TrEMBL record:
It comes from Lactuca sativa. GO terms for molecular function: zinc ion binding. Keywords: Metal-binding, Zinc, Zinc-finger. Residues 327-372 are annotated as: Disordered. Residues 348-360 have a biased composition (Polar residues). This is SWIM-type domain-containing protein. The lineage of its organism: Eukaryota, Viridiplantae, Streptophyta, Embryophyta, Tracheophyta. PROSITE patterns: ZF_SWIM. PANTHER family: MULE TRANSPOSASE DOMAIN-CONTAINING PROTEIN (PTHR31973:SF190), POLYPROTEIN, PUTATIVE-RELATED (PTHR31973). Residues 255-297 form the SWIM-type domain. It comes from the Eukaryota. InterPro entries: MULE_transposase_dom, Znf_PMZ, Znf_SWIM.
């Protein structure tokens, strides 16, 4: 686990946790289990990592139990997990966090089904259905999908909608992703480290995180205004699109906002709710909200600040502390030296005991002993 994980996770406050596993490389067995979230610039924010013998229910339960202890997550956890449908993971999540929202990577769903349905049209239908933010829109797109290929649509419906259709997500997490690439990106960054012995691999990851946090902090300082670079770009693009929308006030706290192609939704100003659900799911004002703010700004008695409608985060308030220890290269050198002496040790394994060493310590026999 990373230092100050619980404080950093609360600072991130987007409620999304990605889970993934990756094989160790070279002669070293095992798998690296990782968990990461999204920072306020839509970049990966690693939370914890561990090396286990294999990926199964037992290893995922151990990992999630430690993660829960470190983040102070109770059984009534109200966050969202996103992952591939990995071996043993769903069982572990259901047992430890029965109330969590668990999202499946839509790309992984597509990969599992494209052996039979590999056409580009199938992929397009799948992504449109998964990306819909409202249930009426989703049902309309699923009807189109069924007309294209009824069997494929029925196969997709076998996966509970709450696991892959954005229109059925709770909105408890603030994010705009349907694939589990937050951990996949992290695993790609530590790929070279996975070719090392266990301790060296863990040190490689820790030092990568130190550099990453510093680099991201430097990049965020370049942002002009209260938002990060990515959030600013998204908001500016939506401001331009909002000019094509017309907001009509109902005389109370709601607005009817209409755009092209029957894009009409309701904005509740008092409760800050939006029937398009994009604002709630993504944390940045949608075009309907911006059009509403534009109309409200015509009233001189109304003081508006669009940034108050943006989800707040401060993930990089906490750092990964450096530690004192021997360099990784020294460890690798010692490992190679020990390996070169292995033949001499193997020749002595069949003897019941060994004579005293130079420092007077008696070596014990390894005969009839199982070593794991």
């Amino acid at each position: 686990m990373l230092g100050s994980t619980e404080k950093r996770f609360q600072g991130m406050s987007r409620g999304l946790v990605g889970l993934d596993g990756a094989f160790m490389k070279g002669p070293f067995p095992g798998q690296v289990l990782t968990t990461a979230g999204l920072d306020s610039n839509n970049g990966i924010y690693p939370l914890a990592y561990a090396i286990v013998e294999s990926e199964n229910t037992a290893s995922w339960k151990w990992f999630l139990e430690n993660l829960g202890d470190d983040l102070e997550l109770g059984i009534n956890l109200n966050y969202t997990f996103i992952s591939d449908r990995r071996k043993g993971l769903q069982i572990a999540v259901d047992q430890l966090f029965p109330n969590v929202e668990h999202i499946y990577c839509i790309r992984h769903i597509h990969d599992n089904m494209r052996k039979k349905w590999g056409q580009t049209e199938y992929k397009d239908h799948l992504w449109r259905c998964a990306s819909a933010t409202t249930i009426p829109e989703f049902e309309h797109l699923m009807k189109e999908f069924s007309e294209y290929d009824k069997e494929a649509c029925q196969r997709l419906k076998q996966i509970p909608l709450v696991h892959w259709a954005r229109s059925h997500f709770s909105g408890r997490a603030v994010y705009d992703v349907l694939i589990s690439n937050i951990c996949e990106v992290f695993n790609g960054k530590i790929e070279k480290g996975r070719d090392n012995p266990v301790i060296s691999c863990l040190e490689f990851i820790r030092e990568y995180l130190i550099k990453r946090i510093c680099n991201v902090m430097k990049a965020m300082k370049k942002a002009k205004g209260p938002l990060t670079l990515t959030s600013t770009d998204i908001l500016n693009a939506r401001k331009k699109g909002a000019s094509q929308y017309i907001a009509k006030w109902n005389g109370a706290n709601k607005y009817q906002v209409t755009g092209a192609l029957q894009d009409q939704h309701v904005v509740d100003v008092r409760n800050q709710t939006y029937t398009c659900r994009k604002q709630e799911l993504m944390g940045i004002p949608c075009r309907h909200a911006i059009a509403t703010l534009n109309d409200m700004s015509k009233d001189p008695e109304v003081e508006l600040d669009i940034y108050k409608w943006v989800h707040k985060q401060k993930a990089y308030s906490f750092k990964v502390d450096p530690i004192k220890g021997r360099p990784i290269e020294s460890e690798r050198l010692n490992k190679r030296q020990k390996a070169s002496q292995g033949d001499g040790v193997n020749e002595m394994q069949g003897q019941d005991s060994q004579g005293p060493t130079n420092d007077g310590v008696q070596k014990l026999s390894r005969k009839h002993i199982s070593v794991t």
